[in-house]
Prior knowledge:
The complex is a heterodimer. Chain A is mostly beta strands. Chain A has a single domain, classed as Jelly Rolls (Sandwich), CATH 2.60.120. Helix content of chain A is 4%, strand content 41%.
Amino acid sequence: MSVDEVLMRGRFSPLKNVLSYDVFNTGFNGWMSLMPNFTEYPDFDVPKTLICKDQYPPAMLSSATYRYPGTHGAMSGTFSLKLSTKPVHNPYCEPPKTGSLGHGLKRMAFWRPGCRYLQIESWFSHTAEQDCMDPNDRPQPGLHENSIRAFGWGFDIQRNGMRTFCGMRYLNAVDGEMKQKWQYMYPTPGTDKDWAYGLEGEWCKRGIDAFWFGKRYQDGHTDGFQWLPDGDQRLCYNETDDKLNWQYVRMKIDVENNEYVEFQCQDKVWDMRGIPTFSREAYGRIDYLLNPTIWVEGGADRSVFLYLDSVLISME
Amino acid sequence: MKNFNASHLQVKKCIKEAFQTFPYEVGWADEVIFFFTIEHITEGNPVFTAKVQLSPDGVRWGDDGETPVAKLSGEGVHIIKVAPNFGNYIRLSVETTGGEAMLCVSIHCKG
């Protein structure tokens, strides 16, 4: 057994068929920034939308190098995949400001016959930029954990005439107030127009792209994300913005029963059977779509980052 | 086999002010090229003066000094080949005079 295989089996709990195993110290492995569709007249313009996705910062290979300690590296070598936000934000209950989200995904289109379960696992870390001191009206004004609004993992799937969005979101803070609770992706009932913040003619349908669509509420829930029962969890942020600690997350879904099965973060495991995943009628030209998708959102006028050491996708 | 990657830094954005591209990490790469494409001139005769800047931490920046400062005008693709020994964090710092244009700026790395 090679060292790589020992590490994979030690760090991950894959289902029977591993579809992709990406260690970012070896490169991007097909993970890329999300981009809109450049399909419109007259000059490869993008469809009319409130959510401008072509100004998201690019995903990049990061050495996690900081002002004082130098290079942190990754869990598996020197480089991880870094998702970033620009140093901008809107208040929580408004639509996300352009550039306040960072998004990475890998584009696949496949389903193995006879398989029913799909799983994503990842080792990750999160931090805010150590850019400037906040006002000295609280302890540790140089610690910016509460600038990170949220991050999460999910799937965008299309099979059997249905498009399914599912995922888990860690709501870290709302307008600077720490929350540290997990939510699962599922839309509340309503219209497509409401889903798109009231914009008439928005191309998106309710339940699609809950990362940025769906009205948000001050307590932290949104029309696209519901509270995971007993979903409180204090992840490790460490004591300063320039210390990373690698943590583990796993989400398993059942595509036959259209439900979540299990979610794990660190040592905590949630039995999610009975909680449905959401599907809409199929979109054109994306049959068999199987896109794992990962995102981070900022909640202050400073960049925040989600680092991914590795991601494993499996099914059985 | 070497790695290669191209990432967007500005996409179809009309610009007539000074700007800096988003800090980008290139510690894995041996060579870096910025493609600075003036897609359309939308006002006047803009001239973009682009300097490569490097940073130890992605927060504090200094001029590279080795890559020549580029004065860019006219529609089309302009190429900025970054001098070797660029470290990890890199960006373009751009002054704009004389007008506005729609820009696409991307960074292409190999290593």
